[in-house]
Every structure is written in structure tokens, then in C-alpha cells.
Specification:
heterodimer; A: 468 residues; Cytochrome C Oxidase, Chain A; globular; B: 58 residues
Chain lengths: 468, 58
């Protein structure tokens, strides 16, 4: 594609004619390092929970380590301690570069990172103590919810002020997704953590499921896609297939996602029209998803050979496949007939883990592998260990997802048969949970090798300076 | 006990209307900035060299 090469050369020569902008990246480093530490710590909790499915009495006499205390800690720790913090760190890395300016305020960024860490540590204490609001994904006590809002405003101000001072009018699609994440999170978080406290009954449940679904759909999806849109072209050194198509994907996601939350209450005590709307919009999600996935696959045309020895690209493109799969599952299990089988079964955690771990955590891990050596001006500690971390997470993840999908269908069919006592359906799932546990061990090994590799890269940065 | 169900749902509607208005604003602004013009593909080439961006003088 000679025209593309010409445009790329033009962009490079115009950039090279003036002195290069040096980014501080202190805020990005703070967020990334702390998020990886939480990834490891909460990974231990995840394995403990998986073990409790196989050995239900394990640690059951210690009140702080019961399933009811550990499960919300695992969910909140992975969502807010690891993934959102990593996504924020990567945003602090990407936005100033894409805008060709320095971050608006590193001091404000560092203050945000300190407050965010205080929130996560507060969450660990409060959830282990059992101070829990009892709402899915919104378990944190009210003072911590308020602190999250304050931290998010600090993050949003910093990013928006950086964007406002950008050098170019036209913004790359990743900036659109990051701005969308900031605004949509404000809406989703306020509804899910504050408005929900003043509602009761099915109205409360409806607001809560709007929040739960959009925590993934309007928080982790847009920022995850921002990361994928940035690092896939960067890692493969190939221009994105179509920026126009990426904008169509962005706007269609913006208008479709918010309506889908009520599909968590299909066959429940909410209006049929609301259920039907949520189904229709869930199926319409295929539009933004296919626009995004086609763009990534078309970008990789002629570049697939790079997957052989490019670890960030392995994570990114596997994440894209998982994203496609999870976003095909979502619309399909929103259909009433499928939902009647899989709702509330193990299918759901299988689906959720493929989205949050398989797609968005894979994107964030790829971003870390790409970014950390650059900001510390070094090379990765071990390419081989990075490769191991990929395969551990890939096989562990696949074992986990596939087992829970199959187990979920099996469980759903049993639940739909009134002649089977409930406890028999629990006992029947034990083989599924054993595979889940060992898959969890593999995933944890992936987290350990990833975390160790990154920390060794940082600590040994002076011994391995990057080539000039 | 006072029933806050309707106020809380109206609050959500208000936030939603705010977002819809914001979306419309940014959508119109994006058209003005040429996202659907002949120059729409320019950012994807620029981003590949963002590590070499010139310093912006203010």
C-alpha cells in the first residue's frame, strides 16, 4: 500500500522536524505498578475462592475468609484494584502522546493515584470486615463510594484538560473512547451506587443490573477498546485499517449499550416491554462489536506472522477473539429461550471472566508489556517469561471459560427439571469446579510470571538500558 | 417511610438526558472537525509516530 507508506512517512517527517516532547509518565507508573500488585494479591483470593467450590469447608471457620467476604473482595479487587487502575495508568500514558502535549498536571495525577490506592486498601479492610452494601458490584460502603467519585473527577479533569490543550483538532479514536469512559462511568457509577440506595424492590434491582452490565459495557469496554486501538497498530507497526469505521463503532456503542442491563432480569418481575427492549438492544450490540473486530482483523492482514514472537500482539489479538466470542454470547443469551437455560448458572461467570479477563485484562497486560520498558527506558526482563505468562493465562482462561459454559448449560438443564432435587445439581457440578480450580492455578501462574517480569524489568532498568 | 423510588429514577433519567445531550454536542463537533471528510484517516498515521511528536510551544 504505497499511499499509506507515503502518509506514514509524511507524518514522521513533520514530527521529526522539531525537538521531541519528553513525557514525565510518573502518574502512569504509579497506577501501573500498584495495579499489578493488586492483580497478584487478588489472584490469591481468586484461587482461594475456586478451592472453596471443591472443598466447601476450607477456611470456613475464619469469618474474614468465608466465601461471602472473599467473593466481593475478589470482584472489586480485580475490577477496581487491577483492571480499572491499569486502564487509568495506560490512559495517562496514551492521552498526552496522542495529543502531542504533556499531561495537564502530574501532581494531580499522583494525588489521584494516592487516593485510588487509599480506596482500594479501604475496600480490602471494609469488605473483609463484612461492611458491605449488599449490591452486586456496588458492595463498597458509602464513604468509599464518595471517594471513588472524587478520584474519578480528578482523573477526568486531568484527562479532559490534556485533551483540551491538544495540538490537533482531529483526535485518534482511543481519545474518544477514553473521554466516553470518563463521562459514562460518571453516569453508571452514580446510578449504581447512589440512586440505587433510594429505590426499592424490582426498581432497585433494575437500576442495579443497569449498573452491573454497564460497569462492563460502558466502563471496561470503552477503555479496553481505547487500549486495543492504540496498542494493536503500535505493536504491529501497522496503521489501523479504517479510522472512519472506528468512529462508527464508537458512536454505535454509545447509543446501544446503555439499554441492555434489563436483560439480567428476563423472566423476572419487570415489564415485558422493558425485557423486549433490552433484548433488542443486546442483539444490536453486534453492530459496534463487529465494526471493532473487523477493523482489528483487517489491520492485521498480512501481519499475522508477527504473532510468532510478539508477546503484546499475542495478548491483543487473543483478547480481540475473546471479545468477539463474549460479545456473541451476550446477545445470544439475552434471547428468552437461551436465557431460560443459562441465567444464574455457571455460564454467567464463564461469560463475565471471558470479557473481563480474556478480553480487557489481556489488552491491559499487552499495554503494560509495551509501555513499561518504554517509560523506564529499558528492555523487558525476559521475553521467554512473557511468553510463558501468555500461555499460562491462555490455557488457564480457556479451561475456565469452556468448563463453566458447559457446566452452566448442564446446570441449567438440571434446574429446569423439577424432578431433580437442588442438592443433586450441586453435587453433579463438582467435576466442573475441580477443572475450574486447576484452570485458576494456571491463570494465577500467568499473573505471577507477568507480575514478576514487569517488576524485574523495572528494578533492573539501569542494568539493561534501551538502545538509543 | 418516604418512598424515593420515583425521585431516584428521575435522577437516572436526568443523568441519561445529560449524557444524550453531551453525545449530541460531541457528535456535531466531530462533524465540524472533519471526521467524515476526506481527511478522516489522518489520525491513524499520526499516532504511529506519537513518540516523536514535536514539543508544543505555548
Amino acid at each position: 500500500m504505497p499511499e499509506e507508506i507515503n502518509k506514514s512517512v509524511e507524518a514522521r517527517s513533520s514530527a521529526a522536524s522539531e525537538p521531541a516532547l519528553v513525557h514525565d509518565d510518573t502518574t502512569a507508573k504509579w497506577f501501573l505498578i500498584s495495579s499489578i500488585a493488586y492483580f497478584f494479591i487478588v489472584g490469591i483470593i481468586a484461587v482461594t475462592i475456586a478451592a472453596k467450590f471443591v472443598w466447601p469447608s476450607l477456611l470456613g471457620t475464619v469469618q474474614y475468609l468465608t466465601y461471602g467476604r472473599l467473593r466481593p473482595l475478589h470482584v472489586n479487587g480485580m475490577l477496581f484494584g487491577w483492571l480499572l487502575a491499569a486502564d487509568m495508568g495506560l490512559s495517562f500514558f496514551m492521552v498526552p502522546r496522542l495529543c502531542a502535549v504533556k499531561l495537564w498536571s502530574e501532581k494531580l495525577g499522583i494525588a489521584t493515584a494516592i487516593l485510588w490506592n487509599a480506596i482500594i486498601l479501604g475496600a480490602v479492610v471494609s469488605l473483609l470486615m463484612g461492611w458491605n452494601q449488599g449490591l452486586e458490584y456496588a458492595e463498597l460502603p458509602l464513604p468509599l463510594d464518595i471517594a471513588v467519585v472524587v478520584a474519578w473527577i480528578m482523573f477526568g479533569v486531568n484527562i479532559f484538560m490534556t485533551v483540551a490543550s491538544r495540538k490537533y483538532d482531529q483526535m485518534y479514536v482511543s481519545i474518544w473512547y477514553i473521554m466516553g469512559t470518563i463521562l459514562w462511568t460518571a453516569f453508571v457509577y452514580l446510578t449504581g451506587n447512589f440512586a440505587v440506595l433510594f429505590a426499592t424492590g424490582t426498581n432497585q434491582a433494575n437500576l442495579n443490573w443497569m449498573y452491573v452490565h454497564n460497569a462492563v459495557g460502558l466502563i471496561f469496554t470503552p477503555v479496553g477498546l481505547a487500549i486495543a486501538y492504540y496498542f494493536i497498530p503500535k505493536s504491529s507497526n501497522t496503521p489501523l485499517y479504517s479510522h472512519k469505521l472506528s468512529m462508527i463503532g464508537f458512536w454505535s456503542l454509545a447509543f446501544v449499550y446503555v439499554w441492555t442491563g434489563a436483560h439480567h432480569m428476563l423472566h423476572g418481575p419487570i415489564s415485558q416491554w422493558l425485557q423486549t427492549i433490552s433484548i433488542a438492544f443486546s442483539v444490536m450490540l453486534l453492530i459496534p462489536v463487529w465494526a471493532v473486530v473487523y477493523n482489528f482483523f483487517a489491520t492485521m492482514k498480512g501481519q499475522w506472522h508477527q504473532l510468532k514472537d510478539n508477546v503484546p500482539l499475542k495478548f491483543l489479538m487473543s483478547g480481540v477473539v475473546f471479545y468477539l466470542l463474549t460479545c456473541f454470547q451476550g446477545p445470544m443469551h439475552s434471547l428468552r429461550t437461551v436465557n431460560a437455560i443459562v441465567s444464574k448458572t455457571d455460564w454467567i461467570p464463564g461469560h463475565a471472566h471471558m470479557a473481563v479477563l480474556g478480553a480487557f485484562s489481556f489488552f491491559a497486560i499487552a499495554g503494560c508489556y509495551h509501555m513499561i520498558p518504554r517509560v523506564f527506558k529499558t528492555t523487558i526482563f525476559s521475553e521467554a517469561l512473557a511468553n510463558w505468562s501468555f500461555w499460562f493465562l491462555m490455557f488457564g482462561g480457556l479451561g475456565f471459560f469452556v468448563t463453566l459454559w458447559l457446566g452452566g448449560f448442564w446446570q441449567g438443564w438440571q434446574w429446569n427439571n423439577p424432578s431433580i432435587p437442588f442438592i443433586d445439581t450441586v453435587i453433579a457440578l463438582k467435576p466442573v469446579w475441580i477443572v475450574r480450580f486447576f484452570s485458576g492455578i494456571l491463570m494465577f501462574l500467568g499473573i505471577v510470571s507477568f507480575g514478576y517480569n514487569i517488576m524485574a524489568t523495572i528494578l533492573g532498568a539501569k542494568d539493561r538500558p534501551a538502545a538509543a | 417511610m418516604q418512598d424515593y423510588v420515583y425521585p431516584s429514577i428521575y435522577f437516572s433519567y436526568f443523568l441519561f438526558a445529560l449524557l444524550a445531550g453531551g453525545a449530541l454536542y460531541f457528535f456535531l463537533k466531530s462533524l465540524k472537525h472533519g471526521y467524515l471528510s476526506g481527511n478522516t484517516e489522518e489520525p491513524k498515521y499520526r499516532m504511529l509516530h506519537d513518540e516523536e511528536q514535536p514539543e508544543v510551544r505555548k
